[in-house]
Design a protein that fits this description.
InterPro entries: Leu-rich_rpt, Leu-rich_rpt_typical-subtyp, LRR_dom_sf, RLP_Defense_Trigger. The chain has 4 domains: 125 residues, Ribonuclease Inhibitor (Leucine-rich repeat, LRR (right-handed beta-alpha superhelix), Alpha-Beta Horseshoe); 152 residues, Ribonuclease Inhibitor (Leucine-rich repeat, LRR (right-handed beta-alpha superhelix)); 209 residues, Ribonuclease Inhibitor (Leucine-rich repeat, LRR (right-handed beta-alpha superhelix), Alpha-Beta Horseshoe), CATH 3.80.10.10; 41 residues. The longest helix is centred in the last third of the chain and has 25 residues. It has 9 helices and 42 strands. It is of the alpha/beta class. The strands form 7 sheets. It has a 19-stranded parallel β-sheet, with no helix packed on it. Strands 23-25-27-29-35-37-39-41-42 form a 9-stranded parallel β-sheet, with no helix packed on it. Strands 12-14-16-18-20 form a 5-stranded parallel β-sheet, with no helix packed on it. Helices cover 15% and strands 24% of the residues.
Length: 611
């Protein structure tokens, strides 16, 4: 056995490896091996039972025929490389019986018809097969889906078309996991799915073209833990058998279908449901109390519907609820103060509704926003995390982009988005205490008052959007201490003074500050004059003002200005009295005559008269 997994090996494979003819297990996965796959090096390793070379940079063509005589081979993983795996030429017949095969994202038969490897049909011991992300074409292979030994099958991310195949012999599949998402499949799902796949724990048919009603038989899949039917064309109603008394279901994803005009469905007795995604389904009406029948709910996404009414004040009764996504609905009323009791809340998104009233200052009491804490979102695994690691995905808006988050980024994400509502009043200064908050969006409301200086204590914040409100005053200079901030927007308010243009704030363009008539300084094109120091500390302002006065006194402009002022004052001090008083003029000219006579007499004494 030779295990070199994750040792960051670079370059090619040592040719000496071909001499290890008794080697039964070789793991070179997660390295930086590159160059064409060294087929000649591997041809002599006919004792291999396990070959794992995934997640490298091998190129060229790997002909699967090279393994024809590897009679002991059971597990092979070639996934995530840069070569083409050719399974069809030259013609060959396998001497092995595989247990697991992972050809995910490795160009299977790219130049040979993009067909499913034909040798798979001769395998009788299969438990795990992944052919994901290979652009394979044609109809879904029913002989593979209804294989009597297979537990896990992933065909996601290909170009399969046609309908969902039925068993030609009415055989029962032993599949625990089936992923056919992100293909071009259409038509209706089989009504007898509970009979065809009685042991399913996981079913993903998302991002296809399926239509019609969701069969009520889905409620009879009593072992089902994850069901993802999102982004298809399903319509009608969500079967009662699926949303009631289904105690095994942990994640239900129905987002992006056509349930328009339906009221919010009722749920009951789903004791293990932790993740409920009903985004963009066109549901109307109000949120029902039936959600209280989901005691361990952790993620609730009902965004982009037509729901209305008040936001219920009983969400604090969910001890594990961490992500609430209600954006783009028609909710009105106030933000319930009871939300402040949700100490595990990580993301709160009420954007694009009609909420009014003030922002509850008690939101600063939520522990998960005051210090870094990881949200536990365990993956769903079947048999092996290498082949069947299904992670929860949640769409979030951060830094102006709506993206799917999963894994570690999702578990660490925190944020508040209350933008595009009708909130009023001042921004609570207590929000500045939320040091672990990554994103705060309060844009497009009617908020007034000053920007709280306490925002500068939110050291971990990455996005702060306060645009389109009625904020006044200056931008606190201490806000430049937010070293991790990458998005900052205070545009279209009534702010004044100079813009703090230091540290990360030098990266923000004028779009972050426009619409404030009295803001000045870079990146705006408006120069600051008397108010240039208005938002700096007093001692710094005094020091700079003294420096300005010293510099002004020593300038040429100051010198010549003094001369001009003195000349003007002296001139008019003489001329103005003469213009206003006749007596002054007589006396003035009399004095002038006397002075002239005296001067002439003095001069004549120096020049004697000629005889």
């Amino acid at each position: 056995m030779l295990n070199l997994k994750g040792n960051l090996i670079q370059g090619g494979i040592d040719p000496c490896l071909s001499e290890m003819t008794s080697l039964i297990s070789l793991d070179l996965s997660f390295n930086h091996c590159q160059g064409n796959f060294p087929s000649n090096t591997f041809r002599n390793l006919t004792s291999l039972q396990t070959l794992l070379i995934s997640d490298n940079k091998f190129g060229g063509i790997l002909s699967f025929a090279m393994f024809a005589n590897f009679s002991n081979l059971q597990d092979i993983d070639l996934s995530n490389n840069m070569f083409e795996v050719n399974t069809e030429t030259p013609r060959w017949y396998p001497s092995f019986q595989l247990v697991s095969l992972n050809l995910r994202n490795c160009g299977v038969n790219n130049y040979h018809g993009r067909v499913v490897p034909s040798f798979i049909s001769s395998q009788k011991n299969f438990k795990v097969v992944s052919l994901a992300y290979n652009a394979l074409q044609g109809a879904l292979p029913s002989w593979l889906i209804y294989n009597t030994t297979l537990d896990l099958l992933s065909l996601r991310g290909n170009s399969f078309s046609g309908g969902f195949p039925l068993s030609s012999r009415l055989a029962t599949s032993m599949l625990i996991m089936l992923d056919i998402s992100d293909n071009r499949l259409y038509g209706q799902l089989p009504a007898t799915i509970h009979q065809l796949f009685p042991d399913l724990n996981y079913l993903n048919t998302s991002f296809n073209l399926f239509k019609g009603d969701i069969p009520s038989s889905y409620g009879n899949l009593t072992k089902l833990e994850v069901l993802d039917l999102s982004n298809n064309f399903f319509q009608g109603i969500i079967p009662a058998s699926l949303r009631q008394n289904h105690t095994s279901l942990a994640q239900l994803v129905l987002s992006g279908n056509h349930f328009h005009g339906r009221t919010m469905p009722l749920f009951s007795n789903m004791s293990n449901l932790a993740y409920l995604h009903l985004q963009n389904l066109g549901f109307s009406g109000s949120i029902t109390h039936s959600l209280m029948n989901l005691p361990i709910l952790k993620v609730l996404d009902i965004s982009r519907n037509n729901l209305s009414g008040n936001i219920p004040n009983w969400f604090h009764t969910f001890p594990n609820l961490a992500i609430i996504l209600f954006s783009r609905n028609k909710f009105h009323g106030i933000i319930p103060i009871s939300l402040c009791q949700m100490q595990t809340l990580h993301v709160l998104d009420f954007a694009s509704n009609s909420l009014s009233g003030v922002i509850p200052s008690c939101l600063s009491n939520i522990t998960s926003w005051k210090k870094e804490s990881e949200l536990l979102l365990p993956s769903f695994m079947w048999l092996s995390p290498t082949y069947a690691n299904y992670r929860v995905k949640v769409p979030l808006t951060a830094k102006g982009n709506r993206l799917l988050y999963e894994g570690t980024p999702l578990s660490l994400m925190t944020g508040i988005d209350l933008s595009m509502n009708k909130l009023t009043g001042e921004i609570p200064t207590q929000l500045g205490e939320l040091a672990a908050l990554h994103s705060l969006n309060l844009s497009f409301n009617i908020l007034a008052g000053h920007i709280p200086k306490s925002f500068s204590t939110m050291e971990e914040i990455e996005s702060l959007d306060l645009s389109h409100n009625n904020l006044v005053g200056t931008i606190p200079h201490d806000i430049v201490q937010l070293h991790f901030i990458s998005t900052f927007n205070v545009s279209f308010n009534n702010l004044t003074g100079s813009i703090p243009f230091e540290n990360n704030f030098q990266t923000f363009d004028e779009s972050s500050f426009i619409g404030n008539g009295e803001l000045c300084g870079p990146p705006l094109h408006t120069n600051c004059t008397s108010n240039k120091n208005s938002n700096k500390p007093p001692e710094e302002q005094q020091h700079e003002e003294e420096g300005d006065r010293t510099g002004l006194a020593e300038s040429d402009f100051f010198f010549y200005s003094c001369i001009a002022v003195s000349y003007v004052l002296g001139f008019w001090c003489v001329i103005l009295p003469l213009m206003l008083s006749e007596n002054w003029r007589r006396k003035h000219y009399a004095v002038v005559d006397i002075c002239i006579n005296i001067c002439c007499n003095k001069l004549s004494s120096f020049f004697p008269k000629s005889g």
